[in-house]
Amino acid sequence: MRSGHRLGRRFGWLWGAYGTSALGTWLAFGAFPLIAIQVLHAGPAEVAALSSVGAAVGAAVAVPLGPWVEFRRKLPVLIAMDLVRCAALLTIPVGFALGMLTFLQLLLVLVVVAAADITFRAASGAYLKTLLPAEDLLVANARFESTAWTTTIIGPPLGGAAIGLLGPVATVAADAVSYLLSALGLRATRGYEPPPARREAPRLRAGDLLDGWRYLLADPTLRPLFFNTALFNGLVMATQPLLAVLMLGRLGFTPWQYGLAFAVPSIGGLLGSRLARRFVTRFGQYRVLVVTGALRALWPVGLAFVGPGSGGLLLVMGVELGLIFCCGVFNPVHATYRLERTPTDRVARTLSAWAVTTKAATALLTALWGVLGGLLGPGTAIGLAGVLLLATPLLLPRAAAPEPVPSSV
Fold first, then answer.
1. Closest alpha carbon to 292 in 248, 348, 332
2. What is the per-residue pLDDT across 81-108, written as a single tens digit (0 to 9) for each?
3. Domains of the chain (ranges plus CATH)?
4. Which residues cross the membrane (predicted)?
């Protein structure tokens, strides 16, 4: 962070690997539902199960992996998770080429990828904390956040064009290659990594699976933040399928208008992530965390008032721009705060528990809101989610963090 905020060669490779895999993921955005519909002739229930069931089962599979990662060097785990995701995704084009692709295979691939995603996030947070000094973590997380929004802006249009020219199976293959390139980039970061924490028991015990949740629930500031982010992310993501049904169905928007409504506001995330450090420097970490965490909850209720035509499109873009800008500031500050509050020998377990809970909550709420959308209509269900989101700021920490709970493996 000193001279030009240079974080070193090893972080540069880590950052490049992250950007490569993120771009590959967005290139293949929407490919799995298209494969299910166009290739396997799946119905609506099967398509819905791809995202909800795959994510939920993947989260369950990942539960024992957090404690397992904690007591191993993190860089080999990161490389292994990239290779696992690459191998799993490559089975799709292979199965398609051989005429053996099935819906069950699609579902199993999503389960493997979801579990590997959670494990990768847990290991990457722990690795980042050993790679950089504490004062550099916010800059690093802001760079990851800005990269995420940049790939969100450019990935779906490129992926849409690739799907149109080559088909959805080809974009899945491109996503697989991106994980291979990410693994090669991570391999280039090799250098000294502190030895992992030592486990007292020789083998993983059943009680060890809950260590991450125990730490989160015992910490007076991480606990409310944990519940806040799980509920907020779950409710926001649960409305996305309903908004697609509403905009592409009754309101008559074209697919390119629907894509534009979310691609353009992603610029707000890029701007917010670049301003996060300035805001923290001026106003303090705790104030930025709470204010942006509250502000992001105010926007989604506006989606209940979307109408047809250019006015409706501008309303969606305005709501998404405000929401994404607040998230662009909040996310890197939140990620840094979480790392600072978690002892080094507990980071992997804590981040794994956090990711498992968030992914499971999102899957559950998405399924529930699908039912509510069928009963109440998509507009009413979206409005209900927006009203509930207005209450999520009550779960934000009420005071600045005290000293962290002492670590004990």
1. 332
2. 999 999 999 999 999 999 999 999 999 9
3. 1-195 (1.20.1250.20), 206-403 (1.20.1250.20)
4. 12-35, 47-65, 102-120, 225-249, 255-276, 288-306, 312-330, 375-396
